[in-house]
Amino acid sequence: MATIGLNNFRYGKLLTETGEGTQPTYGTAKIPGKAISCSVDISSNDATLYADDALVESDYSFQSGKVTIGIDEDDIQTMGHLLGHTVTSTGTSPNITYTITRNSNDTAPYVGLGRVITKMVNGVRQYKVEFLYKVKFSEPKAENNTRGESTEFGTCELEGTVSTLSDGRWSVAQVFPTKEAALTYLTGMFGSDPT
Length: 195
What we know:
Blueprint: E1 2-16, E2 25-26, E3 35-44, E4 47-51, E5 54-59, E6 62-71, H1 76-83, E7 86-90, E8 97-101, E9 111-121, E10 124-137, E11 156-162, E12 171-176, H2 179-188
Antiparallel strand pairs: 1-2, 1-9, 3-6, 4-5, 6-11, 7-8, 9-10, 10-11, 10-12
């Protein structure tokens, strides 16, 4: 199996975190930007117990995680949604201007975050949906450069903390034969609440 692509980030605000055996609910699926990169780094508990000169117990369970996504644009509305900042608009379509106001009291909401990974298995394309149930993003690092002799594109990276739901789940994945089926599944993880 080889991964050969990444596309279709989707996120939605975590509305309810239900008990074991039931699904959490999310707001409407939103697109944070076009996908450039994604890395998920999971930290596990690492505890061992030795007795009578032998290993008798070990624990390598989920502890926490970090996700870093690279997107093509730091859209004001997206940054407002993901980071809990206030976004206001002025003007009328098509001349609407958006303003983001950052306040030290702002709190980023928990969101569900999914993506589609294109894979090649025995010469056949497959599409894997990876979904993180509970993520909270933090402020991105701002780095800007002047234009030099050649043009370089600047992109946005967002880092978030991956947590577990109250029942311990933190991720789900499923593989599909078509991209359309994968997108239908991913979009179906979200609801229709406009938040």
